[in-house]
Design goal:
Number of strands: 8
CATH class of the largest domain: Alpha Beta
Radius of gyration: 21 Å
Oligomer: single chain
Strand content: 5-15%
CATH superfamily of the largest domain: NAD(P)-binding Rossmann-like Domain
Largest sheet: 8 strands, mixed
Number of domains: 2
CATH architecture of the largest domain: 3-Layer(aba) Sandwich
Order of helices and strands: EHEHEHEHEHEEHEHHHHH
Strand order of the largest sheet: 3-2-1-4-5-6-7-8
């Protein structure tokens, strides 16, 4: 296939590198600023820099941008996208953008398939991208109204570039789960490092501090967009966390060791039963 990637940040750049390492597809890169394109050309992550004409002949267009930018790119360029092209987003929220991109696909004749690669780093940009970023990761696919053969094409492609598991779901279920598994930990990490004790942690911290604080090294612009566009599911998860935290706090305040131990044991059982 001829695959155009619009947005060569950590995700788009990693997809480009993985495609060149593990497949024979032609990869064309488009980016708002020129530097990532030049770097991608230099290291062989893409075969050529793209333009409007590239969209006219693309078999697949992968959007490696923020959610709002993905929708804007498609709206601005929908008239140029090849009618047989499969357009794939990589955004971390789906209920907000999948209906918009599906509507554009229906209007202009191309196919849209939602996709969320469950992989990443604390760092961003093309310099942080790597060909093996997706090895063993989950590939979440939102088929929507796309034909089965297009969905299968996307699923097969993600498997070829290293994803270990493919999950098919709806935008609503995706966003409910991502609020818990991804967004809440970022909220927690940010709240954790706001403690006045944080600057003095050196010498007093080990694995627990690193585990909890790791994702506080956050891309504020991206995550604020993701949080707000997934507002209700995330607010619900935060409230559940506050309720659970309050229960533990209450147990500590009471000084009832037996009651507190029972609360903590419930968490241990849940974690052991999950096995991971």
């Amino acid at each position: 296939m001829k695959i155009v990637i619009a947005g060569l940040g950590i995700i788009g750049g990693s997809i480009a590198k993985a495609l060149k390492k593990y497949t024979d597809h032609t990869v064309i890169g488009i980016n708002r600023s020129r530097t990532p394109v030049e770097k991608a050309l230099e290291c062989g992550a893409i075969d050529e820099a793209g333009n409007i004409d590239s969209l006219r002949t693309a078999d697949m267009l992968i959007l490696g941008t923020y959610p709002d930018a993905a929708v804007s790119f498609v709206r601005d360029n929908a008239q140029y996208i090849n009618k047989s092209c499969i357009v794939v987003d990589t955004c971390g929220i789906k209920s907000e953008i999948c209906p918009k991109l599906s509507a554009a696909a229906a209007e202009y004749g191309f196919v849209f398939v939602g996709f969320h690669p469950m992989a990443g780093k604390e760092k961003n940009g093309f310099d942080a991208s790597e060909a093996d970023l997706f090895l063993g990761a989950s590939s979440i696919i939102i088929p929507g109204n796309a034909p089965r053969d297009a969905v299968n094409t996307v699923a097969s492609l993600t498997s070829k570039i290293g994803f270990g598991r493919v999950i098919f779901t709806t935008p609503e279920e995706h966003d409910r789960m991502i609020a818990f598994t991804s967004q809440l930990p970022h909220v927690l990490a940010c709240a954790y490092v706001f403690s006045p004790q944080c600057p003095n942690h050196n010498g007093f911290s080990a694995g627990s501090y690193r585990d909890v604080s790791r994702v506080a090294n956050i891309n504020a612009e991206l995550w604020s967009e993701l949080f707000i566009e997934n507002k209700q599911p995330l607010v619900n998860e935060i409230q559940t966390f506050i309720d659970n935290l309050t229960e533990i706090q209450s147990g500590i305040k009471k000084g009832d060791r037996k009651e507190l131990a029972a609360i903590l044991h419930r968490a241990k059982v849940i974690k052991e039963e999950l096995g991971e």
